[in-house]
Specification:
Shape: globular
Number of helices: 5
Organism: Kribbella alba
Helix content: 10-25%
Protein name: Tannase/feruloyl esterase family alpha/beta hydrolase
Keywords: Calcium, Disulfide bond, Hydrolase, Metal-binding, Serine esterase, Signal
Number of domains: 1
Family: Belongs to the tannase family.
Order of helices and strands: HEHHEEHEEEEH
Low-confidence stretches: none
Number of strands: 7
Structural class: alpha+beta
Pfam family, one: Tannase
Radius of gyration: 17 Å
Strand order of the largest sheet: 3-4-5
Largest sheet: 3 strands, antiparallel
Length: about 160
C-alpha cells in the first residue's frame, strides 16, 4: 500500500489499520513506520485521523493467531459505524478469551495510535471500562531509517 491514498480519501474512504505489538511474523514497527509516513504525507496526524487510524494491540500475535494476554480484536463494527454514521472510533475493545471456557477473561481498550491505555486506578485491571487514553510514556522515533529510504521517499522538495 502506497502513501498516496488521496483518491480513497476523496471518495469518503475510511481506513482502520491494526497490528499486534507481539507479531512475530510481520514486525509491528513496520506498520508504525508506514502510518507515520502516511500521516506526514497527508497533512499530519490530526488531518489523517479524519479518515485513517492505527490501532496497536498490546500482546497480540499475528492476525488471528491469538496472544498471551489479548487474543481477539474485531475492528469491523467500528469501521461500519465510521462509514455509515460518521462515528470515528476513539477505541476498539480487545479481549482475551479462555479457550477452554470460551469466556472473555480480560478486556482492554485500544486507542488510536499513539495513545495508549492507562489504568484509572479503580476496579479490575481485566475490565476495559477501567482504562483511559493516555499519551505515550516517552517520545518515540516512529520512522525507521530503512536502507535505501532516500531512493523512494522524499518528505519535501527534491534537493538538487
Amino acid at each position: 500500500m502506497g502513501l498516496d491514498l488521496s483518491a480513497f480519501r476523496r471518495a469518503g474512504g475510511k481506513l482502520i489499520i491494526w497490528h499486534g505489538w507481539d507479531d512475530q511474523t510481520v514486525p509491528a514497527v513496520g506498520t508504525v513506520d508506514y502510518y507515520d509516513r502516511l500521516t506526514r504525507a497527508n497533512g499530519g496526524r490530526v488531518a489523517t485521523q479524519q479518515w485513517a487510524r492505527l490501532f496497536m494491540v498490546p500482546t497480540k500475535y499475528h492476525c488471528g493467531l491469538g496472544g498471551y494476554k489479548l487474543t481477539d480484536l474485531d475492528p469491523v463494527p467500528a469501521l461500519i459505524d465510521w462509514v455509515e454514521r460518521g462515528d470515528a472510533p476513539d477505541r476498539i475493545i480487545a479481549t482475551a478469551v479462555d479457550p477452554n471456557a470460551h469466556q472473555v477473561v480480560r478486556s482492554r481498550p485500544v486507542f488510536p495510535y499513539p495513545l495508549r491505555a492507562a489504568y484509572d486506578g479503580s476496579g479490575s485491571i481485566d475490565d476495559a471500562t477501567n482504562f483511559v487514553p493516555a499519551a505515550p510514556l516517552r517520545a518515540s522515533q516512529d520512522t525507521i531509517p530503512w536502507a535505501g529510504t532516500d531512493l523512494y521517499y522524499r518528505p519535501g522538495p527534491i534537493a538538487r
